[in-house]
Amino acid sequence: MARSARRTVDPKPRPAFDSSRELPPGPGRPRRGTSVSAREKTGRKVDGDDARSEILARLEAAAPEPGEPFQRVPAPAMPDDPTSLLGARLGQNGGVLVTNASATDWPTHLDLPASPAAFAHVHCQAGTALPEHGVASRGVGLEAKAVHDLSPLDLCVLEAEFSVVENGASWHVPASALERGAALLAEHLVILTRRSRLVATLHQAYPRMTLGHTGFGWFLSGPSKTADIEQALVLGAHGPRTMHLVLLDD
Q1: Is 167:138 a contact under the CB 8 Å cutoff?
Q2: Distance between CA atoms of 157 and 192, rounded to whole angstroms?
Q3: What's the pLDDT at 63?
Q4: Which CATH class is domain 88-248?
Q5: How many helices (H) and strands (E) does the chain have?
Q6: What local confidence, expressed as pLDDT, does residue 129 receive?
Q7: Which element (helix H / strand E) includes 242?
Q8: Cα(164)–Cα(180) distance, rounded to whole angstroms?
Q9: What pLDDT does 19 receive?
Q10: Tens digit of pLDDT for each residue in 178-195?
Q11: Which pLDDT score is estimated for 48?
Q12: Which of 49, 134, 169, 194 is buried deepest, with most CB atoms within 10 A?
């Protein structure tokens, strides 16, 4: 590899820069001791406050006249048959709507491969358990200390804060990271919602959304879904294989 030539350094010290020396005049550079003021350039005094006031005055003069007050578009009303529309939208998402159940017997109306009592691992959100029908937290749903412990979970039961008719989605706020993981890792997901908590569209949904102490909330609208490049929709590939939305009367 060829070496680069060594640079020769002049041993003679250079004189220090003398700031008192006057630079030769040049374009746009006045002689030392002279200055070109803003007054000489524009013919008038330019002050910072005056310039700002002038700019603001020009903006105000150029502003258009105020128009009519903004009119909000009224939110869509609840459809005549919200239950049918909710069931149709949920069905498009791969879920099942249960409408003929009560708060005391809804587990008997679920279309599951086995009775909830036959599942070894179940997680129930507080207030949703029905031990007389085999719906109660047990197995990893009761003993899990970390989210990855929930991988064998068979059933997860949650209660929605409200459900949206137009898209079949239900708003839920997990009580903990474990409950959030349970909703994703369970083979079967059941969500309870109250008929009085149905809203027509997302227009009514947004004001109701809360995040709770966990700072997290989500819309759940069906089982796990994925699609490949051939546009083939597969349910339950990496999450719940089924989802039931149980509509309960108050």
Answers
A1: no
A2: 8
A3: 87
A4: alpha beta
A5: 6, 11
A6: 96
A7: strand 242-248
A8: 20
A9: 53
A10: 999 999 999 999 999 999
A11: 62
A12: 169
**Domain-by-domain residue ranges, the chain?**
88-248
- What is the Cα–Cα distance from 165 to 185, expressed in whole angstroms? 26
Helices (H), the chain: 38-42, 48-62, 82-92, 140-143, 177-185, 202-205
Q: What whole-number distance in Å separates Cα of residue 157 and Cα of residue 191? A: 6
| Residue pair 210/173 in contact by the 8 Å Cβ criterion | yes
**Residue whose entry in the numeric block shows the structure tokens 């064998």:** 152
Q: Which residues have a Cβ under 8 Å from the Cβ of 116 and sit 6 or more positions away?
A: 107, 110, 122, 133, 134, 135, 155
pLDDT value of residue 136: 97
Residues of the chain with pLDDT under 70: 1-48, 229
- What residues are paired with 234 via a beta bridge? 226
Spell out the residues 6+ positions from residue 43 whose beta carbon is closer than 8 angstroms to its own.
Answer: none
Nearest Cα residue to 82 out of 172, 209, 197: 197
Q: Is the four-CA dihedral 114, 119, 123, 125 of positive or negative sign?
A: positive
Asked if residue 222 lies in contact with residue 191, where contact means CB atoms within 8 angstroms, the answer is: no
Q: What angle do CA 187, 193, 195 make, to 5 degrees?
A: 150
Burial letters 135-156, b for 16+ CB under 10 A, else e: bbbbbbbeebeebebbeebbbb
- C-alpha distance across the termini of the chain, in Å: 87
Tell me the C-alpha distance between 185 and 240, whole Å: 6
| Ordered strands of the 198-199 beta sheet | 198-199, 162-164, 170-172, 218-220
